[in-house]
Please model this.
Amino acid sequence: MLMKIGKMQEKNVLNRFKDILGQYCAICQFMELSKRCFVNDHAQDIVSREKFICLATKNEVTLTNYDAEAMIYAISRNYIVNVHLCLETFLKEVEEQLKIYGRNTYQVRLTGESYLSCITRNLVPEKLPKNIQEIYDLCEYYRFVRNLSVHNLCNVGKRAEVYKNYVRAYNQIQKYNYKKDAKFDKLSAPNEYANISFDDFVMFARSCVELATYLFQNIAYDYEKIILKIPHKQIVKWKRYDRQRCERVIVAYLNTVFAVDHTLEGQISHLVDLVMAQ
Model:
């Protein structure tokens, strides 16, 4: 059991990501339920523009688009936008931590490079394991679905560039059989942009969790940098403990707010010395 460490106790970037993604997923699930109920209950009211307008007017809602089928698919693509937002927030937080607390020199993002590509390149400079590469390519595909959805109203040149990237990503995932994975075998996904569905949302969300977990497990933290940036007020409290208790508190803090690996054992005595010396 981790020791309590007062107000400093937080969650690491992975657990924060999972919490936020979980909240977004709950909203998306509710929206999907609402959409399905609406479609089932009002199938006859959305078959024509005139009937759809009457339904909207009856409920005191003015719509700017009465193409029900187009809106239904747009809702599904919006799920992808939400999941991507959660993933990119996680990647940006990891980037910030690598810059401040990373054990290795952080390699900055290249022009036009995605956060996913940059973070992966920093954490796993060698070739990704096959199962992770498949998930990585899938997340990249849904990133381009997101881009195409968000940038659909951009100028013609920008739209063409985004679409070209999307096609390349879609062709890339055609190499893989995602059905062999138990968490995907019941899903009718991945789909092309025009047919993005709720199953794509489920597939993207599950893939993000797996990929984020893998990336987090590959973060190499510099524990000395972390200790030196802990607020002085907290350090004063830790200095009151004997070395054994101080060691337990440091390990608990690092394991809760960041992550520990096999290198910590050989450094813990030095970290206690750093605390005592401040």
Notes: The CA atoms of residues 109 and 118 lie 6 Å apart. The mean pLDDT is 92.
